[in-house]
Each structure stands twice: as C-alpha cells, then as structure tokens.
Amino acid sequence: MITSKKPEFKHILLKNKLKIAVLGGGSWATALIKILTENKRNVGWYIRFEKNKDFIEKHNHNPSYLTSTRLKTKRLKISIDINLVVEQADIIIVAIPSAFIMNEFAKLHIPLKDKIIVSAVKGVIPENMKIPGNHFHEDYGVPLDRIGVICGPCHAEEVAMEKLSYLTIACQDKTYAKCIASMLPDISSAVSTEFAASCVEVILPSGICTAVTWFCAICTDVIALSAISVPAIAFTATKLFVTFVIAILSF
Fold it and tell me: What pLDDT is recorded for position 123?
C-alpha cells in the first residue's frame, strides 16, 4: 500500500511565533544578522560597546566587521545589555568567540534552560575546555534537545554577500532544526537526528567534530557544485582531501 507522508507545519508556526536574537558583534554575528533581517525577521542584537551600537544605528553597517555589508536597522533592536536581549528572545544564536564567552555570560542573570540555544562558535571554551554545547548544557541546564549548532565550510563574508554558501543547522529536535533553518533560507538545511547533532558538536571532541562537520558539508558541496562546473568540483575535491587529513590528525 502506498502512503504519502503528511506535510509538517509545526516549524512554520514556530517560526512566526518565536523571537530570535544574536549575541556578538563580529563577522559571523553580522553576517547572520544580515541574512535574518533580509528575510524579514525582527532580531535582537547584543553588542558589547555602545559606540558600535550607535554607529550601526546611524550608518547601517558594522564599523569593525564586514563594513561594506548594509544592515536593515529598522528590523534590529540593538542593546549593550545582554540580559535585555536574552530575556526578550526565545532563540539565542551565540556568535561570541569562544575566548570571550565566559566573560560575556558572567553578566547574564537570565536563566537559559527555557531558551533554544544555537551555537555559531568555533573551538572550545578555554577556561573549562568544553565545547559550547556541553558548556550550555552542563553549566546552564539547557536540555540537549534545545541546543543547536550552525556550521559549514563557508566564511562570514561569503554568507553576507549571498555568494554560493551552505550552512547546516543541527539539533536533536527536528522541529527546532527546521524552524531555525527556515529563518536562514537558501543557505541552510536542517539536520535533526540525534547522531548528527552530536557529531556536529555535543559529543565528539572538537578536532574530530570539526573534521566531521567539514566532511559532511563538503560532500554536500560536491553534489551541489556538480551541476555548475568541473573546476568547482576539483576545488571542492581538494577541500575534501584536506578534510580527510584533518580527520586523521584529529585522532
């Protein structure tokens, strides 16, 4: 008997209901802000320095990172108060460099256990040598199925300029993964299995995790680029070879 799978709409309802915020004022944060606001999302944005906040609100671009990227400031609620930004959001994208996470979150008095935390952070937190997913789970009580990861073999500049890019949104909860991916259309896809979410960040050591993430994303590159050009495939194949070397060295 042939059956058709019913379409799922829960993530669409969540997309319209949940409020999103980005923490961090660097390149990744700026690129994500640009994509979110271009797709008509109102976004809370935590930035450390008031002079940067004032500059962005006046000139519509970041004075220090991706300075040529124009931002739709009418859709932004920028604040230097991390508590205010976190309190008003349901989904928190953390794009603060790992070296500064402890200092920045020391200012936070709002509980995170009921938030959806999405890490766009590379590396481990130096003070406790934890990857961000473990840090937010163990130190802030965020359930594993409310922790997501944004990753992919592309640079912030490429994402902001809307060049051919690809990001993976990984989360154990399928609905949350699809919801976040739908806020970043055209450059992202959702991965929702427990294994995938764990591979990206939560369980594996950072070196292996980086290699696995790049490997999965680059394999997708090969498929996507196969319809474009032979040189593109050759370039991607080179990246794939380098990824294998990284994976071996990670062990």
Answer: 85
